[in-house]
């Protein structure tokens, strides 16, 4: 009789336990779904910030080089950003000395640690820059220096400068497209839903077009400035 009385109780216990287990499963499923959504959101947010920033840095880096392309007046930027190869190591000329303008039309690199290898490498880099410059070594107030005299601006010099400017602009556009490739790779690896992935890819292309256009606009603006230089 006691067993008969306990059976209904046991049956009720099993019956009430099953909904609790079902509730836990539903709660667990909701947690997984929520985590999945959060992960997708984070992937999208992180990629937007990361890749936008990288592209913007490329544009700003190019903007910082524009002072190099100037035939009307010499400036330190014209020389200090040139790359020089010393003993197989590439560095900017500005890392080897203080660069300044000596009126009326010269740029001086006062060397920190002058050696024949450094002097030769700097002169070679400036001579091969395509800017029709002929550097020479001078001792200025006891400091061994590379002196670069800028010629009177001519149409030929201006055209050569514009050619260099366009070439450098193309290099920076290529950097933007390399970032686009990495961005698209990150989208594929994130395994986002098809619609979300397509939206990210479209955003990637829009941003690529935007930043390539910014570089093109900087090139055009500098070209107009150079075109106004009269011989």
Brief account:
The protein has 231 residues and is of the alpha+beta class. It contains five helices and six strands, in the order ααββββαββαα. The longest helix has 64 residues, at 2-65.
Tell me what portion of residues adopts beta-strand conformation: 5-15%
At the fold tier of CATH, the topology name of the largest domain is Topoisomerase I, Chain A, domain 4
Distance between the termini: 119 Å
Radius of gyration over alpha carbons?
32 Å
- Global structural class: alpha+beta
* Number of E strands: 6
CATH architecture classification of the largest domain: Orthogonal Bundle
Q: Taking strands numbered 1, 2, ... along the chain, how are they ordered across the largest sheet?
A: 3-4-6-5
Assigned CATH superfamily of the largest domain: Ribosome-recycling factor
| Fraction of residues in helix | 55-70%
Flag low-confidence runs: 1-45
Q: What is the highest CATH level, the class of the largest domain?
A: Mainly Alpha
Largest sheet, in brief, is: 4 strands, antiparallel
Question: What can you tell me about this protein's structure?
Answer:
By secondary structure, this protein is α+β, with helices and mostly antiparallel strands. It has 2 domains: 51-68 and 154-227, Topoisomerase I, Chain A, domain 4 (Orthogonal Bundle), CATH 1.10.132; 76-149, Gyrase A, domain 2 (2-Layer Sandwich). It is built from 5 helices and 6 strands. The protein has helices spanning 2-65, 76-80, 116-127, 155-190, 194-227; strands spanning 83-86, 89-92, 97-102, 106-111, 136-140, 143-149. The strands form 2 sheets. It has a 4-stranded antiparallel beta sheet. Strands 1-2 form a two-stranded antiparallel ribbon. Helix 1 runs antiparallel to helix 4. The longest helix is centred in the N-terminal third of the chain and has 64 residues, at 2-65. The radius of gyration is 32 Å and the shape is elongated. Residues 1-45 have low confidence and may be disordered.
């Amino acid at each position: 009789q006691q067993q008969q009385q306990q059976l209904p109780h046991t049956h009720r216990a099993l019956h009430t336990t099953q909904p609790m287990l079902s509730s836990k499963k539903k709660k667990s499923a909701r947690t997984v779904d929520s985590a999945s959504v959060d992960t997708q959101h984070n992937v999208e947010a992180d990629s937007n910030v990361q890749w936008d920033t990288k592209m913007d840095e490329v544009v700003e880096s190019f903007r910082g080089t524009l002072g190099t392309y100037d035939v009307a007046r010499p400036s330190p930027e014209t020389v200090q950003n040139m790359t020089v190869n010393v003993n197989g190591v590439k560095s900017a000329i500005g890392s080897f000395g203080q660069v300044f303008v000596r009126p009326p039309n010269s740029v001086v690199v006062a060397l920190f640690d002058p050696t024949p290898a450094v002097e030769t490498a700097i002169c070679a880099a400036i001579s091969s820059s395509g800017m029709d410059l002929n550097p020479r070594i001078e001792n200025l107030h006891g400091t061994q220096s590379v002196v670069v005299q800028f010629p009177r601006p001519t149409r030929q010099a201006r055209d050569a400068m514009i050619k260099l400017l366009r070439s450098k602009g193309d290099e920076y556009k290529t950097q933007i497209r390399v970032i686009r490739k990495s961005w698209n790779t990150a989208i594929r690896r994130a395994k986002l839903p098809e619609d979300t992935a397509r939206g990210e890819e479209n955003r990637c292309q829009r941003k690529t077009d935007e930043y390539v256009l910014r570089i093109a606009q900087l090139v055009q603006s500098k070209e107009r400035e150079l075109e106004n230089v009269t011989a």
